Input
Amino acid sequence: MSRLQGASPRSGPRPSDGGPAGMVRRRLRYLLAHGRHDLRAHRSVVGNALRVTVASSVAFYVCRYALGLTVMSVYAMFTVVSLGVLARIPGSGRQRATTVLMAIPAGLALVTLGTLLAVQTWAAVLGMLVIGFLVAYAGTTGPRIAGAAPGMQLLYILPCFPPYAPDALGQRLSGFVLGAVLLALAQRFLVPEPDTPAFRRLLADAADAAARLADHHGGTLPVQTLTRAHETGDALRPSRVPPADLPASPTLAHKAMAHATEAVRTLLARLEALHASVGPRYVYHTETVVLLESIGDAAREAAKALRRGERLRPGEGPSAAVLQSELAPVRAHRAVDTLERLSGDDRLVYLRRRSQVVQAADSAVVLALATRLLLGDRSVGLSPAGHGFSYARARLHELWWQRLTTHLTPRSVIFQNACRFALGLAAARAVAGLLDLQHGFWVLLATLTLTRTTSLETWSAVRQALAGTLVGAVLAGGLLALVHDRDMVYAVVLPVVMLVAFIAGPLRGLAWAQGGFTLVVATLFAQVSPVTWQLAPVRLVDVLVGSLIGLACGLVAWPRGAGREVRRSMAGLCSAIADAIGYTTARVVDHSGSADCLEINRALVLAQESLAQYHCELRDESVGPPDWPLVLVAGADARRGERLLPGRPGRIASREVRAWLRRAADRTAADYRSLARHLRADGHLRADGEVPLVAARPLDIRALLAVAPAVPRHCPDRETRALSAALLLDSVIWLDALTADLDRIRQEM
Output
């Protein structure tokens, strides 16, 4: 725990729930919560299966039997299946329908390219390599596009096989559009996924909770207020927010929303820590009360603006001017006056509480500015340096280009996955074309659906898929031999088989999914062209070939997945923290250079993506993973100081104090670089390796207080000296927090 930042924001009072009765209540709540979760999951699977079955059946029957257009019927049905089953588009019914409709232009381009490039095997393979990478890499721009990517891959795979039929392009495109529109209608109106609370409402709730905390100026903190603060803060955690609602795209609104989220969560944490660090009889100083009132007003105005959602003109909306005017004297001579009356440990206690108030006020300022930017006031980008709103002046294409290039490195797991899938699909298309495999489309489909991020996961998926396909092939062969060429029987059986397959697959596992899909394609192709029972073994062979190709790619391209990459990305983040400490301190001391968070932002993004994939992979559970989120916390602390400290008023004039601050910053940066070298050496933090891990060295705050010059009460430049002292204190608090973060990393990994 930081020596200056005080107790954990989670250390406030909680309702008592102990004893045997409490254990029973907690167990009942656990069972009820998990029961509701399972019920919702089953309802979602059944609803999606019903929507896909109805939309694909209508599309297929209308095109095949009403219009007599065989090619159009196949493309209409596979469009629904690819975007409804293979894709994992998140969100409510309305959001899913919108995503499907917005994917139509890209789908038209993919179907057209696949049709034209099928003229030669080499052209189809090259197209598969490029398009496979681009579609997979497009997932960097948000969870909706990432969820739709596997289904979009299928829109190129299906037409890129012989026969080369550009004259059938019209039917293919018409079938695709019909399937997409029917799926969107089904997602919107047929047992739709329920709407979720808008993210702006979650932000407004958190801002309201922060305002209520700020309204508390002494006495016992109401449990209800603290509980509400916990709930609204936790509701903004990425793991608690539905993927479709996360502000994850590179648009200006989403970046402002993410900025406001970080600010309000920091505000809640600092206010909770402040109230938890004082007793019920503690009396706040007058300037602290005034500042808390201004914090509450700013947070309340932000909440009201977020709920209204009206577009703002420059100067409208929540204002940070009053809060900044109240913050300046607290940051300057009032703090110094109080310090002059204290000594020893009393100074440290005061610094801790003052740090919490000042950081809360800074967060409230950022919340107000981010809210205005979110609601359309781009003049926020002209605000003084130190708030991190430089992106407000960027154009839309610049924001998208910055996001796309962030992951354009072999150290990004998204880049690695895109390369892995592109190579696998291109290899599968080359094998299917060179060997002239019948229904080679199934080879690529198997490669697409069975390739995982680690060779261990790929092998596990291949074993399950082959077992399920074998059983499905036997059943499909029996069905084809028994029914033969009676199309009416297949037409009746197809919806039933689809519904069962699309329910059993997600609920029972990959083997059931592959077996059910084998039955689906058998009943489908039996209505498109004359087939025999031999279609079933062909399907099995194609799945086997695609599985082997996927397994080979998994062994060649980054076979260990994110296991090693997460360590490298965390090492890169530690190096970025060290660099941020260096040039942030240089700006504080010398006011030279420019504030730029791009490096640490990129390191944080890469580390977060690596950790997210790492948590999704199969691994040896006997070896507990390090507590990587602690490194992310340190990165966030470093970025917060990089954004705020260079914009603080004042300048440190004392040569001795500047030298002390440089030495403290260099030592802290060196400790993070030591940690980075240790992680790159692939060692364990508690083990003795070739790269020793330097122990975290705490800041000598008492030595600083001894060399820091006092501010005479009647000094002509007293205001300037006071601002300099306040800037120094804020810098020390920031460095102390980073040192404490490093100490926690060492203790808990």
